[in-house]
Design goal:
By secondary structure, this protein is an alpha+beta fold. Helices cover about 20% and strands about 40% of the residues.
Length: about 325
């Protein structure tokens, strides 16, 4: 399904908003296009008309990885996973790698945590062992435990939450981190010539996910913050204040291949800033079975040869 948004000043169509009926991704495409192929699932569909207004992005991270470099990264990734991949994957056209701006929510907040734990301090005890000439001193490591409670506060590191239904959290995480130091204010001209997706996940759900990630980060930072040689029984409660959740477009190259109408597409994603590549290549169980049978056959042949030499010897 699609709608056409209009330029508020001229009334002319500025872009077409299109929602994939198969995977749910919400994309912006050229207003003159009659058909579009979803970069997430590879399905081709016809655009329709007209529509409502979407949330405007606040920030944007630009592409630093070229199409050629992204295509080469996809080829390397598939080459490393092709042994047991379905045969159709080997016929992929790597020119179909597409660059798109994926919607995310950038979450920041101040975190305050009240914590309780036990802190362990190591020390050495000296013990006299033996008698006479065999008498000597042994050192034994001991740990003294004491309770510790306190309050910890800091800004949370920037958290990015994927706002696209077309890209799973696992796929988004597989491309690694983005360099937030390169954040720029969004202007429509920055995405000219690119596919730009609108959020297809609810803002409130993204906020909930961002808070969970922020609390997880606080737990990791508290673990590093604990003094002493050891700690145990760390318990804490986190409050998040001064929250902000800003729609941010991030650059991702996507390769989607439909090798079978009955199977989900192969989808490889490449970080448009760093080139880090991720995704999941399906396994052909026919190839796995053939490999197992070949291995068993070789083992049986080796055993037969060994027995024949043993009988002749």
């Amino acid at each position: 399904m699609s709608t056409l948004a209009e330029d508020r000043r001229t009334g002319a169509p500025a872009f077409a908003r299109w929602s994939c009926q198969y995977c749910g991704a919400a994309l912006q495409v050229e207003p003159g296009a009659l058909t579009v192929a979803c970069p997430y699932c590879g399905s081709a569909q016809v655009l329709e008309r007209p529509g409502d207004e979407a949330e405007a992005p606040l920030f944007l991270l630009g592409f630093l990885v070229s199409r050629e470099a992204a295509s080469a990264a996809v080829q390397r990734y598939l080459r490393g996973h092709k042994l047991f991949a379905p045969s159709g994957v080997g016929r992929a056209n790597f020119a179909d790698v597409r660059g798109l701006y994926v919607p995310t929510y950038l979450y920041t907040a101040t975190a305050r945590a009240d914590y309780h734990a036990e802190i362990g301090e190591d020390y050495l005890e000296e013990h006299a062992v033996g008698r006479g000439r065999n008498r000597h001193i042994e050192h034994r490591m001991r740990t003294e435990w004491r309770p510790l409670s306190g309050t910890w506060a800091a800004y949370t590191p920037d958290v990015l939450v994927c706002a696209s239904k077309g890209l799973s959290d696992a796929e988004f995480a597989s491309v690694g981190l983005f360099d937030h130091r390169r954040l720029a204010r969004y202007v429509p001209a920055a995405v000219a010539g690119w596919i730009a997706e609108e959020p297809s996940r609810e803002r409130d759900l993204c906020l909930q996910s961002a808070r969970e990630l922020a609390r997880t980060q606080v737990g990791g930072r508290l673990t590093q913050f604990m003094p002493g040689d050891h700690h145990r029984g760390l318990r804490f409660g986190v409050s998040l204040d001064e929250e902000s959740l800003d729609l941010t477009l991030v650059p991702v190259w996507v390769f989607a291949l439909r090798y079978s109408e009955k199977r989900p597409p192969v989808r490889i994603v490449v970080n448009g800033q760093t080139g880090v590549t991720g995704g999941k290549v399906p396994v052909s169980w026919v190839k796995v079975l053939v490999a197992v049978l070949v291995a068993l056959g070789l083992m049986m042949l080796a055993a037969a040869v060994f027995q024949a030499f043993g009988a002749n010897g």
